[in-house]
Design goal:
This is Thioesterase. This protein has 181 residues and is of the alpha+beta class. The protein has a single domain, classed as Hotdog Thioesterase (Thiol Ester Dehydrase, Chain A), CATH 3.10.129.10. Strands 3, 4, 5, 6, 7 and 8 form a six-stranded antiparallel β-sheet that branches. A hairpin with a 3-residue loop joins strand 5 and strand 6.
């Protein structure tokens, strides 16, 4: 099921601009998260990674990437959380049992209470992009279970990472259907 990579479109002013997907080589310049082989238990009847696990592994990679920005795995115990608000999922090439995979995260932007990210799931065995999860996630105050402004230290760390990622030599392959408000 090696699907041909598509160009994504996104609105820019009144016209759509076509942005090619980053190459495997470009994506491997980003840190690897959630590195693992595809386990037998995640295989479906088609002999490849079951659809529900792509999102889970990408989400795990995003969570790991946020730890050094001040968002630890135990953040809810500290009164904060990140909740997913929206996703756009694109399947490009199948991952089969035993294939090595890794998640590469690019932060696109943030608002007072939300952040926008791309998570690219790589098939490291065949050196190709397998899956893209675009996500908008929210900062939640766990005492009220409502959105709240990012803590200042986390906001500053997010801003630094977003600025670093804006300097990457390729455009983000956003879907054009998600954004920050």
């Amino acid at each position: 099921m090696a699907l041909r990579p598509r160009r994504s479109t996104r609105p820019l002013g009144s016209r759509a601009v076509s942005t090619p997907r980053p190459s495997y080589e470009q994506l491997t310049t980003l840190p690897a998260y959630a590195q693992q082989p595809v386990p037998v238990a995640f295989e479906d009847v088609n002999g490849h990674l079951n659809v529900r696990h792509y999102t889970g592994i990408a989400s795990e990679g995003l969570d790991e990437s946020l730890v050094d920005l001040g968002i630890p795995q135990n953040w809810p115990a500290l009164g904060h959380a990140c909740f997913s608000a929206e996703h756009h999922l694109t399947y490009l090439a199948e991952l089969r049992t035993g294939d090595l995979m890794s998640a590469r995260v690019r932060l696109i932007g943030r608002s007072e209470r939300a952040a926008h990210a791309l998570v690219h799931l790589l098939d490291d065995t065949h050196q190709r992009l397998s899956y893209v999860m675009e996500e908008v996630f929210l900062h939640i105050d766990m005492t009220t279970r409502r959105t709240a402004p990012w803590p200042e230290d986390v906001a500053a760390a997010l801003d630094r990472r977003i600025a670093e990622h804006a300097e990457l030599p390729w455009e983000p392959d956003v879907s054009g259907c998600l954004g920050l408000r």
